[in-house]
Amino acid sequence: MIVAFSISPTTGDETGGVSEAVAAAVRVVRESGLPHETNAMFTNIEGEWDEVMAVVKRAVDVVAEVSPRVGLVLKADIRPGWDGQLAAKVERVEEILARGDQGPASGA
Predict the structure, then answer these.
(1) What is the structure's pLDDT at 1?
(2) Is residue 63 a contact partner of residue 73, using CB atoms and an 8 Å limit?
């Protein structure tokens, strides 16, 4: 499965920033050893259900250490028997774009 998640404390630093808390959560993901990527809005992580959810819980727990309340947004792509999809899903789209296919919306 692939999980895209975002964790945010309800309290920030003096400027309202949450970067320190988010960095602590990302550190948990990186230390997990699971395939992952972080972008401006979410962290994506790939693995089996129990291992992915355990990492998400640990990430929430570290943010909860600095904030009395934590927000979590989570989206999961559950597709048993498929792995390596964190990169493969993007590669399939890039291949279509490189071919110049117009896709179903073009009527082609």
Answers:
(1) 96
(2) no
Give 10-residue mean pLDDT values along the chain (108 residues).
94 72 94 96 96 98 92 95 91 92 61
Q: Can you spell out the DSSP letters for 63-99?
A: HHTT-S-EEEEEEEE--TT--SHHHHHHHHHHHHHHH
For 36, the enclosing helix (H) or strand (E) is: strand 36-38
Bridge partners, residue 44, by sequence = 4, 37
Question: In the chain, what is the greatest distance between 2 CA atoms, to the nearest angstrom?
Answer: 54
* Residue tagged 């597709």 (tokens): 79
